Structure formats: C-alpha cells, structure tokens
Amino acid sequence: MRRGPVALAAVLLLAACEGLLGGEELMRAPLQATATGYAPLRVQLKPEMNPVAINLHADFGWGKHEEAGQWNAYRAELRRDGQVIASREVQVNSPEKPNVSASAPPSSLKQPLLHVDVPAEGEYEVLITATRAVVVTLNSPELVVRIKVPRAQQ
Questions:
Q1: Residue ranges for the chain with pLDDT beneath 50
Q2: Cα angle vertex 142, ends 17, 63, to 5°?
Q3: Strand locations in the chain, DSSP E?
Q4: Amino acid 114: pLDDT
Q5: Between 150 and which of 22, 28, 59, 95 could a Cys-Cys bridge form, CB atoms 3.0 to 4.6 Å apart?
Q6: Tell me, what DSSP letter sits at residue 40?
Q7: Domain boundary assignment for the chain
Q8: What integer pLDDT is reported at residue 18 of this predicted model?
Q9: Reported pTM
Q10: pLDDT score, position 14
Q11: 3-147: CATH topology
C-alpha cells in the first residue's frame, strides 16, 4: 500500500537528477551575494535548448555547528523582459548534525532550482532571492544552466 508515495518520491528524485546530470552544460557562473539573495545573472536561451535546467551549486562551510538544524529559503525566478517565465521556492538545509562535536568534511550542494521550457529566443534573467534571513553558509555559490535535459517521466 505504501509503494505509491515511495514510487512518486523516486520519480521526483530521478527527475531532479536529470536536471543536474543530463543534457549539456551551457554555462556556469559565480553568484554574487547581496542583502536579498544573489545578484541577477543573464543568459541567452532559445527553444532549441529545451528543456532547460537551472541549478545552484555551492560548498557548505566546515564546522558550522551553530547552523545545525537551520535552513535558507529562496525563490528562484526566470524572467524575460520583466515577465516571470517560471518560479519556484526551495530550501537549503545545513548538513551539520546537532550535538555532534566533530564535524564531517565540507559537503557540496547541488540544488535544482528550475526545469523549464523557454518560449522564445532571447536574453533571460535568473533571480535568486532569499525569502527569510540567510543562516546557512554557502561558499563559492555558482549558477549552472544545463540544456536539452531529459524530461521527467510521468
């Protein structure tokens, strides 16, 4: 009886992995932190590149015990000419474990943000805005755009 939710979770996980691993990497650019999240980045996209996956990559800090149990919340948006094409809210959870004195080596974050078909050729803007106070340290954050990623199987 519980196979349905487990199967659905597996399909969603695989769909997210396809956006992280499948297709071709179009660009990788460092993100500049701002008071409200990250500075917008521009990218040239066209329908022949669909589907497009936009991901956040970063490294977690090491020994950030005070961040155990904490998370950051972001809204990712893809815009063209001021119009929102796609948006999604995501959380980034600290990998730190509470009540553990020795910290594991730093781990990496590979967070899917958006998986979208762009409607027309042009310059698009990616915005990542914090929706609450940032409490988890992300080192060397990058935006990674992948094109021609596999579509999620339904």
A1: 1-18
A2: 90
A3: 24-30, 33-34, 37-45, 52-60, 71-80, 83-93, 108-116, 122-130, 138-147
A4: 97
A5: 22
A6: E
A7: 3-147
A8: 47
A9: 0.82
A10: 44
A11: Jelly Rolls (2.60.120)
